[in-house]
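wait is this the right file?? whatever heres the structure
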């Protein structure tokens, strides 16, 4: 197994992580306290971009190569701009940790997509067919993404529930 086979699945798994975080940020912007028209619009866009990232990651993993890298690069840039805009529109209820984690994952997907666009733009190579992937590489990628995404999702919920005095309410499930 070479390094390329080991890391081939990482962009798609990174897209899943970024998709989960952006969808969570978007959902929080839609239903959170103090949400206005601007934050709801940005939230709806983030939910759509998050779902698109999940679908793209699945498609890339299924075919064994990056699909539609130009569209992926556009989605990455739009997601980065939208999450940054949400930080300005709804700063008190947007998690900085979640935005940073999403940005990190989105930039890794964007870098892979940009490399693929450049490779295809040269025109000297024939389009790549599906290449083998390493199960160990996929598991390592999933573990890394879980370590990054899980705290970011928790921070997203905490930011949405944050009170004006800076405290987070305790949610009990008593019936």
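ok assuming it is, sequence goes like this
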């Amino acid at each position: 197994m070479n390094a390329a086979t080991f890391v081939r699945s990482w962009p798609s798994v990174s897209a899943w992580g970024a998709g989960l975080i952006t969808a969570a940020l978007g959902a929080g912007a839609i239903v959170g306290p103090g949400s206005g028209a601007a934050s709801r619009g940005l939230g709806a866009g983030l939910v759509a971009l998050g779902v698109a990232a999940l679908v793209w990651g699945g498609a890339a993993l299924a075919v064994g190569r990056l699909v539609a890298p130009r569209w992926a690069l556009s989605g990455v840039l739009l997601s980065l701009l939208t999450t940054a805009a949400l930080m300005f529109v709804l700063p008190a209820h947007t998690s900085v940790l979640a935005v940073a984690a999403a940005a990190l994952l989105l930039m890794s997907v964007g870098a892979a997509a940009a490399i693929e666009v450049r490779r295809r733009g040269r025109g000297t190579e024939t389009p790549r067919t599906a290449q083998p992937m390493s199960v160990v590489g996929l598991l390592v990628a999933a573990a890394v993404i879980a370590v990054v995404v899980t705290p970011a999702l928790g921070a997203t919920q905490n930011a949405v529930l944050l009170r004006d005095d800076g405290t987070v309410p305790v949610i009990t499930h008593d019936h």
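The helical segments are 3-7, 10-31, 37-63, 69-89, 96-121, 135-161. so i think its the right one actually
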